[in-house]
Amino acid sequence: MTIITGRAKIAAVLGWPIQHSRSPLLHNFWLDRYQIDGAYIPLAVKPEDLRKVIQGMVAAGFKGCNVTIPHKEAAYLCCDRVDEAAKKMQSVNTLWFEPDGTICGTSTDGLGFVASLLDQEVSLKRCKVLILGAGGAARSVVTALSDVGAVITITNRTSSKAKQLINDLDIKANQLNWEDWPNSLEQFDLLVNTTSLGMEGKEDFAFDLTYAHPKLVVTDIVYVPRVTPLLKAAQDKGLKTVEGLGMLLHQARLGFEKWFGVNPTVDQELTEYVASSLRK
Ligand code: ATR
Protein backbone atom coordinates (compact mmCIF):
# COMPACT_ATOMS: atom_id res chain seq x y z
CA MET A 1 0.00 0.00 0.00
CA THR A 2 1.25 3.49 -0.85
CA ILE A 3 1.72 5.74 2.18
CA ILE A 4 0.49 9.31 1.70
CA THR A 5 2.61 11.79 3.63
CA GLY A 6 2.39 15.56 4.06
CA ARG A 7 4.55 15.94 0.97
CA ALA A 8 2.22 13.89 -1.28
CA LYS A 9 1.56 15.06 -4.83
CA ILE A 10 -2.18 15.31 -5.45
CA ALA A 11 -4.14 15.21 -8.70
CA ALA A 12 -7.83 14.66 -9.46
CA VAL A 13 -10.43 13.95 -12.11
CA LEU A 14 -13.33 16.38 -12.42
CA GLY A 15 -16.63 15.30 -13.95
CA TRP A 16 -20.39 15.54 -13.45
CA PRO A 17 -21.24 12.81 -12.69
CA ILE A 18 -17.92 11.20 -11.78
CA GLN A 19 -18.67 7.85 -10.13
CA HIS A 20 -18.26 5.85 -13.36
CA SER A 21 -14.76 7.17 -14.07
CA ARG A 22 -12.04 4.52 -14.20
CA SER A 23 -9.28 7.13 -13.96
CA PRO A 24 -8.85 6.95 -10.14
CA LEU A 25 -8.39 3.19 -10.37
CA LEU A 26 -5.87 3.54 -13.16
CA HIS A 27 -3.75 6.35 -11.67
CA ASN A 28 -3.74 4.85 -8.18
CA PHE A 29 -2.60 1.53 -9.68
CA TRP A 30 0.39 3.35 -11.16
CA LEU A 31 1.05 5.31 -7.96
CA ASP A 32 1.23 2.01 -6.13
CA ARG A 33 3.34 0.31 -8.81
CA TYR A 34 5.93 3.11 -8.82
CA GLN A 35 5.72 3.62 -5.02
CA ILE A 36 4.98 7.32 -5.43
CA ASP A 37 3.94 9.47 -2.50
CA GLY A 38 0.76 10.75 -4.13
CA ALA A 39 -2.98 10.41 -4.64
CA TYR A 40 -5.50 10.83 -7.44
CA ILE A 41 -9.07 11.53 -6.39
CA PRO A 42 -12.49 11.82 -8.09
CA LEU A 43 -14.29 15.15 -7.70
CA ALA A 44 -17.94 15.59 -8.66
CA VAL A 45 -18.01 19.17 -9.96
CA LYS A 46 -21.12 20.95 -11.25
CA PRO A 47 -20.55 22.80 -14.54
CA GLU A 48 -21.15 26.19 -12.91
CA ASP A 49 -18.45 25.46 -10.31
CA LEU A 50 -15.69 24.31 -12.67
CA ARG A 51 -13.63 27.50 -12.79
CA LYS A 52 -13.70 28.05 -9.05
CA VAL A 53 -12.76 24.40 -8.38
CA ILE A 54 -9.78 24.59 -10.77
CA GLN A 55 -8.62 27.84 -9.19
CA GLY A 56 -9.11 26.29 -5.76
CA MET A 57 -6.99 23.30 -6.75
CA VAL A 58 -4.17 25.63 -7.81
CA ALA A 59 -4.44 27.45 -4.49
CA ALA A 60 -4.47 24.13 -2.60
CA GLY A 61 -1.28 22.94 -4.27
CA PHE A 62 -2.72 20.24 -6.52
CA LYS A 63 -0.37 19.23 -9.34
CA GLY A 64 -3.20 19.17 -11.89
CA CYS A 65 -6.23 17.21 -13.01
CA ASN A 66 -8.11 15.39 -15.71
CA VAL A 67 -11.49 16.68 -16.79
CA THR A 68 -14.18 14.54 -18.30
CA ILE A 69 -17.76 14.95 -19.50
CA PRO A 70 -19.15 17.63 -19.52
CA HIS A 71 -16.13 19.82 -18.70
CA LYS A 72 -13.70 19.43 -21.61
CA GLU A 73 -14.66 22.59 -23.51
CA ALA A 74 -15.19 24.78 -20.43
CA ALA A 75 -11.84 23.66 -18.95
CA TYR A 76 -10.13 24.80 -22.15
CA LEU A 77 -11.33 28.33 -21.36
CA CYS A 78 -9.88 28.08 -17.82
CA CYS A 79 -6.33 27.44 -19.09
CA ASP A 80 -3.64 30.14 -19.24
CA ARG A 81 -1.58 28.11 -21.71
CA VAL A 82 -2.68 25.40 -24.16
CA ASP A 83 -0.82 23.49 -26.88
CA GLU A 84 -1.67 22.89 -30.54
CA ALA A 85 -3.65 19.71 -29.83
CA ALA A 86 -5.92 21.58 -27.42
CA LYS A 87 -6.32 24.54 -29.77
CA LYS A 88 -7.42 22.27 -32.60
CA MET A 89 -9.95 20.54 -30.37
CA GLN A 90 -10.97 23.69 -28.45
CA SER A 91 -11.06 21.34 -25.50
CA VAL A 92 -8.72 19.75 -22.93
CA ASN A 93 -8.76 16.59 -20.85
CA THR A 94 -5.47 17.07 -18.97
CA LEU A 95 -4.37 20.12 -16.95
CA TRP A 96 -1.22 20.72 -14.95
CA PHE A 97 -0.31 23.63 -12.76
CA GLU A 98 3.09 25.31 -12.90
CA PRO A 99 4.71 26.37 -9.58
CA ASP A 100 3.78 30.02 -10.37
CA GLY A 101 0.10 29.00 -10.72
CA THR A 102 -0.03 28.96 -14.53
CA ILE A 103 -2.76 26.56 -15.66
CA CYS A 104 -1.61 24.50 -18.67
CA GLY A 105 -3.82 22.20 -20.71
CA THR A 106 -3.80 19.68 -23.51
CA SER A 107 -5.98 17.06 -25.09
CA THR A 108 -4.44 13.58 -24.92
CA ASP A 109 -7.28 11.47 -26.38
CA GLY A 110 -5.84 11.49 -29.90
CA LEU A 111 -2.34 10.73 -28.63
CA GLY A 112 -3.77 7.86 -26.58
CA PHE A 113 -5.59 6.49 -29.59
CA VAL A 114 -2.47 6.50 -31.77
CA ALA A 115 -0.31 5.04 -28.97
CA SER A 116 -2.74 2.17 -28.44
CA LEU A 117 -2.57 1.26 -32.15
CA LEU A 118 1.23 1.55 -32.27
CA ASP A 119 1.32 -0.65 -29.18
CA GLN A 120 -0.44 -3.34 -31.22
CA GLU A 121 2.02 -2.86 -34.09
CA VAL A 122 -0.44 -1.15 -36.42
CA SER A 123 1.57 1.12 -38.68
CA LEU A 124 -0.21 4.39 -39.40
CA LYS A 125 1.88 6.31 -41.92
CA ARG A 126 0.02 6.25 -45.25
CA CYS A 127 -2.46 3.83 -43.69
CA LYS A 128 -5.88 4.16 -45.38
CA VAL A 129 -8.30 4.77 -42.54
CA LEU A 130 -12.08 4.85 -42.54
CA ILE A 131 -13.55 6.73 -39.57
CA LEU A 132 -17.16 6.09 -38.59
CA GLY A 133 -18.60 9.17 -36.86
CA ALA A 134 -17.94 12.89 -36.66
CA GLY A 135 -18.56 13.77 -33.00
CA GLY A 136 -16.14 14.99 -30.34
CA ALA A 137 -14.30 11.66 -30.15
CA ALA A 138 -13.84 11.60 -33.93
CA ARG A 139 -12.18 15.01 -33.75
CA SER A 140 -9.36 13.77 -31.48
CA VAL A 141 -8.87 10.61 -33.49
CA VAL A 142 -8.85 12.39 -36.86
CA THR A 143 -6.42 15.07 -35.65
CA ALA A 144 -3.98 12.49 -34.30
CA LEU A 145 -4.21 10.25 -37.37
CA SER A 146 -3.67 13.21 -39.66
CA ASP A 147 -0.57 14.21 -37.64
CA VAL A 148 1.00 10.77 -38.16
CA GLY A 149 0.39 10.77 -41.91
CA ALA A 150 -2.62 8.48 -42.28
CA VAL A 151 -4.89 8.85 -45.31
CA ILE A 152 -8.28 9.68 -43.86
CA THR A 153 -11.85 9.07 -45.03
CA ILE A 154 -14.78 10.04 -42.80
CA THR A 155 -18.34 8.80 -42.92
CA ASN A 156 -21.13 9.98 -40.65
CA ARG A 157 -24.89 9.46 -40.54
CA THR A 158 -25.27 13.25 -40.74
CA SER A 159 -22.90 14.08 -43.56
CA SER A 160 -22.92 17.84 -42.89
CA LYS A 161 -21.19 17.14 -39.55
CA ALA A 162 -18.38 15.24 -41.27
CA LYS A 163 -17.91 18.17 -43.64
CA GLN A 164 -17.87 20.59 -40.74
CA LEU A 165 -15.25 18.50 -38.93
CA ILE A 166 -12.95 18.46 -41.97
CA ASN A 167 -13.34 22.24 -42.35
CA ASP A 168 -12.86 23.00 -38.65
CA LEU A 169 -9.74 20.86 -38.32
CA ASP A 170 -8.39 22.13 -41.64
CA ILE A 171 -7.13 18.70 -42.67
CA LYS A 172 -7.07 16.74 -45.90
CA ALA A 173 -9.72 14.02 -45.73
CA ASN A 174 -12.24 12.31 -48.01
CA GLN A 175 -15.88 11.83 -47.24
CA LEU A 176 -18.13 8.83 -47.89
CA ASN A 177 -21.92 8.56 -47.65
CA TRP A 178 -23.01 6.64 -44.54
CA GLU A 179 -25.04 4.18 -46.67
CA ASP A 180 -22.01 3.45 -48.86
CA TRP A 181 -19.28 2.58 -46.37
CA PRO A 182 -19.91 -1.20 -46.08
CA ASN A 183 -19.58 -1.60 -49.84
CA SER A 184 -16.42 0.50 -49.97
CA LEU A 185 -14.63 -1.28 -47.15
CA GLU A 186 -12.23 -3.18 -49.38
CA GLN A 187 -10.11 -0.05 -50.00
CA PHE A 188 -9.22 0.46 -46.34
CA ASP A 189 -6.45 -0.78 -44.02
CA LEU A 190 -8.00 0.41 -40.78
CA LEU A 191 -11.61 0.87 -39.66
CA VAL A 192 -12.27 3.05 -36.60
CA ASN A 193 -15.64 3.32 -34.87
CA THR A 194 -15.98 6.63 -33.00
CA THR A 195 -19.79 6.53 -32.84
CA SER A 196 -21.81 5.38 -29.87
CA LEU A 197 -23.08 2.41 -31.91
CA GLY A 198 -22.46 -0.81 -30.02
CA MET A 199 -22.03 0.89 -26.65
CA GLU A 200 -23.55 -1.05 -23.74
CA GLY A 201 -27.13 0.03 -23.14
CA LYS A 202 -27.62 1.29 -26.71
CA GLU A 203 -29.68 -0.56 -29.28
CA ASP A 204 -27.92 -3.28 -31.28
CA PHE A 205 -26.35 -2.36 -34.61
CA ALA A 206 -25.18 -4.92 -37.16
CA PHE A 207 -21.85 -3.83 -38.64
CA ASP A 208 -21.53 -5.22 -42.14
CA LEU A 209 -17.92 -6.27 -42.78
CA THR A 210 -18.66 -8.48 -45.81
CA TYR A 211 -16.32 -6.54 -48.07
CA ALA A 212 -13.43 -6.17 -45.63
CA HIS A 213 -9.95 -6.87 -46.95
CA PRO A 214 -8.41 -9.82 -44.99
CA LYS A 215 -5.69 -7.46 -43.68
CA LEU A 216 -8.19 -4.87 -42.39
CA VAL A 217 -7.53 -3.86 -38.77
CA VAL A 218 -10.66 -2.93 -36.82
CA THR A 219 -10.78 -0.73 -33.74
CA ASP A 220 -13.46 0.81 -31.58
CA ILE A 221 -13.07 3.62 -29.08
CA VAL A 222 -15.92 2.19 -27.03
CA TYR A 223 -14.61 -0.04 -24.21
CA VAL A 224 -17.83 -1.06 -22.44
CA PRO A 225 -18.39 -3.80 -23.46
CA ARG A 226 -14.73 -4.66 -23.94
CA VAL A 227 -15.54 -6.69 -27.08
CA THR A 228 -18.03 -4.44 -28.86
CA PRO A 229 -20.40 -5.71 -31.59
CA LEU A 230 -17.99 -4.27 -34.20
CA LEU A 231 -14.96 -6.04 -32.69
CA LYS A 232 -16.98 -9.27 -32.40
CA ALA A 233 -17.99 -9.04 -36.08
CA ALA A 234 -14.34 -8.47 -37.03
CA GLN A 235 -13.07 -11.34 -34.88
CA ASP A 236 -15.68 -13.66 -36.41
CA LYS A 237 -14.16 -12.83 -39.80
CA GLY A 238 -10.63 -13.48 -38.49
CA LEU A 239 -9.61 -9.82 -38.70
CA LYS A 240 -7.10 -8.18 -36.35
CA THR A 241 -8.80 -6.01 -33.72
CA VAL A 242 -7.61 -3.36 -31.27
CA GLU A 243 -9.87 -2.78 -28.27
CA GLY A 244 -10.86 0.69 -27.03
CA LEU A 245 -9.48 0.14 -23.54
CA GLY A 246 -5.94 0.80 -24.80
CA MET A 247 -6.87 4.38 -25.70
CA LEU A 248 -8.21 5.01 -22.19
CA LEU A 249 -4.99 3.69 -20.65
CA HIS A 250 -2.59 5.48 -23.00
CA GLN A 251 -4.38 8.86 -22.85
CA ALA A 252 -3.70 8.86 -19.10
CA ARG A 253 0.09 8.59 -19.37
CA LEU A 254 0.95 12.21 -20.12
CA GLY A 255 -0.98 13.57 -17.14
CA PHE A 256 0.60 11.02 -14.80
CA GLU A 257 4.06 12.05 -15.99
CA LYS A 258 3.31 15.77 -15.59
CA TRP A 259 1.94 15.39 -12.05
CA PHE A 260 4.01 12.57 -10.61
CA GLY A 261 7.23 12.64 -12.65
CA VAL A 262 7.19 9.08 -14.03
CA ASN A 263 6.22 8.04 -17.56
CA PRO A 264 4.06 5.00 -16.74
CA THR A 265 3.80 1.79 -18.73
CA VAL A 266 0.63 0.27 -20.14
CA ASP A 267 0.91 -3.51 -19.86
CA GLN A 268 -1.20 -6.64 -19.57
CA GLU A 269 -1.43 -6.48 -15.78
CA LEU A 270 -2.85 -2.94 -15.84
CA THR A 271 -5.18 -3.77 -18.75
CA GLU A 272 -6.64 -6.77 -16.90
CA TYR A 273 -6.93 -4.79 -13.66
CA VAL A 274 -8.96 -1.99 -15.29
CA ALA A 275 -10.93 -4.46 -17.45
CA SER A 276 -11.97 -6.43 -14.37
CA SER A 277 -13.47 -3.25 -12.89
CA LEU A 278 -15.53 -2.76 -16.05
CA ARG A 279 -17.25 -6.09 -15.48
CA LYS A 280 -18.49 -5.03 -12.01
P1 ATR B 1 -18.81 11.94 -28.89
O1 ATR B 1 -18.42 13.31 -28.43
O2 ATR B 1 -18.65 10.89 -27.81
O3 ATR B 1 -18.17 11.54 -30.17
P2 ATR B 1 -21.26 12.80 -30.15
O4 ATR B 1 -20.64 14.11 -30.45
O5 ATR B 1 -22.66 12.78 -29.65
O6 ATR B 1 -20.42 11.98 -29.08
O7 ATR B 1 -21.13 11.88 -31.46
C1 ATR B 1 -21.79 10.68 -31.58
C2 ATR B 1 -21.48 10.09 -32.96
O8 ATR B 1 -22.21 8.86 -33.05
C3 ATR B 1 -21.96 10.97 -34.11
O9 ATR B 1 -21.08 10.78 -35.21
C4 ATR B 1 -23.34 10.37 -34.41
O10 ATR B 1 -23.81 10.59 -35.72
P3 ATR B 1 -24.68 11.93 -36.07
O11 ATR B 1 -23.69 13.04 -36.21
O12 ATR B 1 -25.38 11.61 -37.31
O13 ATR B 1 -25.61 12.13 -34.89
C5 ATR B 1 -23.05 8.91 -34.21
N1 ATR B 1 -24.26 8.13 -33.97
C6 ATR B 1 -24.98 8.06 -32.82
N2 ATR B 1 -26.03 7.23 -32.97
C7 ATR B 1 -26.00 6.78 -34.25
C8 ATR B 1 -26.83 5.88 -35.03
N3 ATR B 1 -27.90 5.27 -34.50
N4 ATR B 1 -26.47 5.64 -36.32
C9 ATR B 1 -25.38 6.23 -36.87
N5 ATR B 1 -24.56 7.07 -36.18
C10 ATR B 1 -24.86 7.36 -34.90
Structural summary, described in words:
This protein is α/β, with parallel strands linked by helices and 280 residues long. It has 2 domains: 9-107 and 252-278, Rossmann fold (3-Layer(aba) Sandwich); 110-244, NAD(P)-binding Rossmann-like Domain (Rossmann fold, 3-Layer(aba) Sandwich). It contains 12 helices and 12 strands. Helix 7 (159-169) links the parallel strand 8 (151-156) and strand 9 (174-177). The chain is globular and about 60 Å long. Bound molecules: 2'-monophosphoadenosine-5'-diphosphate. Homodimer. Residues 244-264 form the SDH C-terminal domain. Its EC number is 1.1.1.25.
Radius of gyration using CA atoms only: 19 Å
Structural class: alpha/beta
Chemical compounds bound to the protein = 2'-monophosphoadenosine-5'-diphosphate
Average of per-residue pLDDT values: 95
Q: How many distinct beta strands?
A: 12
- What would CATH call the architecture of the largest domain? 3-Layer(aba) Sandwich
CATH topology of the largest domain: Rossmann fold
